[in-house]
Amino acid sequence: MSSPFQPALPEPLLRERLPAAWNGLPDRARVEAAVAQALDAVARNLAHFGDAFPMPSSVGGIYPAMDNTEWTNGFWTGMLWLSHELGGGEVFRAAAERHVASFDARQRDRIATNHHDLGFLYSLSCVAGYKLTGSERARDAALGAARLLLERFLPNAGIIQAWGDLHDPAQRGRMIIDCNLNLPLLYWASDTSGDLRFRDAADRHIAQAARHIVRADGSTFHTFFFDGESGQPREGKTHQGHADDSCWARGQAWGIAGFALVARHNGDTRLLQLSKVLANYYLNRLPADGICHWDLVFTDGTQERDSSAAAVAACGLLELARNLPLLDPLRAEYERAAAGMVLTLSEQYFAHDGAPGAGLLRHAVYHMPNHVGVDESCIWGDYFYLEALLRLTRIWEPYW
User: Fold this and answer.
1) What domain range is 111 assigned to?
2) Is residue 207 assigned to a domain?
3) Which of 111, 200, 265, 316 has the fewest CB atoms lying closer than 10 Å?
4) Does the annotation mark 328 as catalytic?
């Protein structure tokens, strides 16, 4: 990797802070019950939305319908593929295949693609579709999206710019921790096409994230700015967290999952160590029931929870554990914590009212500073909850 980094040791995991109910292996029957209720909800929502997509967050617990124009649409398609893999039936596969045509048109026509979230969009729709069905249309659409993502790479800074006009000095040079999850699209594109430019950009970006997004104490900035011309690092700030020096919970979860997933692609074991640093910081700052507040600066149970961040973190912990050596003592700890988190979500945060268009997980937060999607459902939370359930049932090949 072009920007060397050396992760610190993780702070000790404070096991006494984790819920006692998380000790031991998860009961298989509880996991299967959670899968069944989740599949029922996805089937009900598929009948409700048809070929439309849910908005990023619910309104009064119900997702409004929308066209394929948001950064979050891939999560819904990903849920359809997951439901198919979980044995939900061909109806989910057929719907996801129709979505592939929509995503193909979107990248060809450049419909709302001027941002880095093309990985969220296309890994979960078209890469997944290609892996599961061999569809050449899905493959070509995902490669087209990867080429659009590569256009956002700033060589001098060694980063993929998150959003904003690439030629606007006021916006140029912003990276955010969410992009860790967009990089697998580039690794897949490099492996599929043989074009090493995709891999080089991903390697350089993850190195910059490791050096500048992660703080010395294991917490993370949401966003970090570089000078787009000279490439020099400038400053870390937040966009959705409580403060520039706090730790936005979903960002920390993106980091746990993203560093571990990238390690799978490029083989850099330092990224697994870095994921452990972030994981212990996250787990040591949970409230009593183990479901995080929207920012990890809060721990006493008085602030809004973010169930969507918990679902992301659970998947990240399971991905991290899978890639750690069998004798690593933290491997079993992360597996138990992730399983406990998922079962807590299924039994205390799942929306049981059965309304068409209702989210799976209640009590999520989209954007607290802008007062958007607060104490609602968020579609990425629903996706990662379903992914975590699938990970608990089998050894799974990620779409990422």
Assistant:
1) 15-393
2) yes
3) 111
4) no
- Cα 352 → chain centroid: 24
- The overall average pLDDT reported for the chain is 96
Residue 105 located in a structural domain? yes
What is the domain count for the chain? 1
Instruction: Yes or no: say if 343 and 35 are a contact pair by the CB < 8 Å rule.
Output: no
- Model confidence pLDDT, tens digit, residues 360-377: 999 999 999 999 999 999
CATH number, domain of 293, equals: 1.50.10.10
Tell me if residue 306 is catalytic.
no
Distance (Å) of CA 8 to CA 4, 179, 274, 313? 13, 22, 7, 20
Q: What is the pLDDT of residues 71-126, one digit of tens each?
A: 999 999 999 999 999 999 999 999 999 999 999 999 999 999 999 999 999 999 99
Catalytic residue among 104, 117, 295, 382: 117
Apex CA 28: angle with CA 23 and CA 31, to 5°?
90
Has residue 375 been placed in a domain?
yes
Percentage of the chain with pLDDT > 70? 99
Instruction: Count Cβ atoms within 10 A of the Cβ of residue 140 and give its class: 0-12 exposed, 13-18 middle, 19 or more buried.
Output: middle
**pTM listed for this prediction:** 0.97
Residue 4 belongs to some domain of the structure: no
Among residues 40, 51, 168, 178, which one is catalytic? 178
